[in-house]
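Summary for the steering committee. One of the milestones for this cycle was to obtain a three-dimensional model of the protein with zinc ion bound, which we needed before selecting residues for the alanine scan. The sequence and ligand used are listed below.
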Amino acid sequence: MKRKGILIIADGIGDRPIKELEWKTPVEHANTPNLNRLAKLGICGMQDPIFPGQPAGSDTAHLSLLGYDPYQTYRGRGYYEALGAGIDVKEEDLAFRVNFATIENGIIIDRRAGRISTEEAHELVKAIQENVKLPVEFIFKGATSHRAVLVLRGLAEGYKVGENDPHVEGRSPHKFDYEDEASKRTAEILEEFVRQAHEILDNHPINEKRRKEGKPVANYLLIRGAGTAPKIPKKFPEQWKVRAGAIVAVALVRGVLRAVGFEIIEVLGITGEYDTDEMAKAKAVVEALKDYDFIFVHFKPTDAAGHDGNYAKKIEMIKKLDRMVGYILDNVDLEKTIIALTGDHSTPCEVKNHSGDPVPVVIAGGGVRIDDIQEFGERACAKGGLGRINGKYIVPIMMNLMGRAEKYGA
Ligand SMILES: [Zn+2]
């Protein structure tokens, strides 16, 4: 029997026991009737997105959760950022993340140029795209506020290049370092790009105006995160013979999904922030299930709350997630659908960053060998029937239950 699949990723949901929560984790403490319903209907376990104890980035974790080995496939972050920003990045291109910054007498005094408005930044981006002359074609595109992406056409081979971002204020920008000859050329082109951009930016009317208003000027570019297309053997839809759609707001994660062949399903009101419209997301999943075989849904704000070290906020966001899951459970035929829910990594409030702690996972739907776990949480799931698995096996386990895995051997 062929079934459809829904993979729900609650970004950074895993956490550690918190004293103020009587040593429970936020997901253990939160009132989550629907996550618990899912746990009762499914088989639970723990998963390590990379390997036990290894903190995962959002990009590498998502590659793994989509069934790819990040050590075989990952070639830097910039590629996903550029794809996520809507640039048609080619296999031979090299992409970077860029910040507008403020430089004074050779010293970076603000790495985000006073969080310059998106409108102003886009004006500056235009001036750079039109006036900088490089020996290769380039695309420079503004994102939000001080963020932008840069794509250098045809330089994928020279991807082993460093960054000029000193990551702290009060220091000079770095020179771009490089690991091989091909990357040396990239470094030289980047130095030239930054030099010309600085000249254009320093005298731009927007910055003249900001200077008069006493605001930090956006007169320098900090470039980091060199990345090129992942080396994936087969894209997701070809490998599993499914039509695959993704509902996701965050640019980096959108980029990963696009890179492995998912169609992005645009949904109004989803933001990747605390105010994201979880019900719009839930309704979009149910709607998309009519046309797609496999739906990926991303829920970001659990991670943001972890980065903020705000356990109350994290609990509030987990309840939002719970409402989303409730609607999906009420409107999907579980006999014909496999639903998996997990996180891409833990973001403990104590750490305020990604950690290497394993993440609870549940898989429910037709054919599942239901275990006796009654609630969704780190310690409850640790006793579940899935045991402890590597995150890259979640998709194959789903596809087996969905009747879409092929036999290996005779
Ligand atoms: Zn994060």
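Key point for the committee: DSSP finds 15 helices and 13 strands in the chain.
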